[in-house]
Every structure is written in C-alpha cells, then in structure tokens.
Amino acid sequence: MISERSFAGSFDSFWRELLPLLTPRFVSLFNEGYETTLHDGSGQELSVLPVVAGMKHPDIVAEFAFRLARTAHVQGMTMGKLRGEKALVEAAQLEAFELIQRYEGGQPTEIVPLSESEKSEGLRLAERYEALYAAFPADSVVQYCPTFPGAGFLNSSEGDIAIGTCLVEVKTTTRRLAGKDIRQLIVYLALDATAGSSRWSDIAIFNPRRGTLHRAKVDSLVLRLSGGKPRSDVFAELVAFAESNEPAFERKF
Fold it and tell me: pTM of the full predicted structure?
C-alpha cells in the first residue's frame, strides 16, 4: 500500500498515458494563467514570505501552520486571538510532529521542539489562511481534512481543505506548483468518485509561503489534460490501474 503523494510523484508511464497533456509547458501555463490574487486583511496583495534564516524543520513548520489554521477555524478564533492560547498552540505543534514522524518513520526522541523563530514563522504562515478564505464567497462552508477511501494499492487518505465546491491542496514551499501537485488532486477526486460521491466542481492549490492560489474547474481541466476524455472515464481508469497493479515505483516527474 502506498500514499496518494507517492502515487502522484511516481508511475510516470501511467500518468503520461492518462493525462498526456499534463506537460511541463502546461504546468508553466497553469502557474501563470490560473493564479488568483490574494490579499491580507488590510487589502494588500500577499507577497512571498522568505524562509527565516537557520530554519531546521521547514516541513514541521509548514504542518504546524496548517494545524494552527485548522484549530483557529474549529475554535472560531482569529489567528490574533489564537496566538495567546498557549495550550492550543502547543497542541498544534505536537500534531505536526506526530504527522511528520508518521511520514518519515521517525521516533519522538529524534525530533526537537521548534525554536521560537520557527514558531513565529508558523504563526505568520497560518495567518495567511485568512486570505485564502477571503478568496471565496463569505457563506462558503470550510472543511479541514476531508477523507477519501483507499483503492487497490492506494491507502485511504486525507485532503487538506474543502471550501464550498472547491477542493484545496496546500503546498507550503518556495517552489512554484508542479505537475505532481495537480496529479495529487486528481487522485483525491478519483477516490471520491469511487465512493459514489462528486463533492467538488473546482480544485485549487494554495501556497501560504508564496501567497498564491491557483484554481481550475475540474471538468474543463481533466478534459484538457486527458486530450478529450470526460472526468468519469479518467477517474475510472485511475482506480482500475490502482486495483490491478502492484506498486512498482518509477522516476519522479
């Protein structure tokens, strides 16, 4: 069994057949043409947030920020108020540690607590989720960590955020989005369809560090990337592959 992230980053031959037009050129066009401008609470456009010098745990900081944003949403708090809730902040840090440990197979004693500068960085990143919410209608329902069933060699999984009819993947990186990021969202949608559901008409990729949001309509995007196949056919082919093959990894795209 493998994760949706591993699947999205491997099996290049399969992906080229399924989505032949998901090329580096398209990804470049997607980076430029599908971006939505995000603004902070004062109306200023978000800029790139540089990585603080000496950061030792960027992956944990990114997950910490996500957990903080989720906690603020669940508790109905602003990030400004959450900053003063030490117990909630510490709980979010522990959740981040535990998740990264599961991904990397580490032991609790191998991970040291975040430094004060890393905690501050996480809080700054978490504040940017409010700009994400503001990019959608005010009455949109926000759901963190929607779940998906497994299929074949694919484990069950959790997405990041659903906002209204849009499924949002969060990538807190210095790089621009990549083809594997789009693939990962396609995997979620295929697993959702397998469960007899079709919850989202849009997908998006949010990068708190770069201050960017890229959004697309599912039907038109899948039709374009597959060379004309409807989403139902593409999703069915993806699940059939997962159910009929052993996970043999190839080079990453």
Answer: 0.91
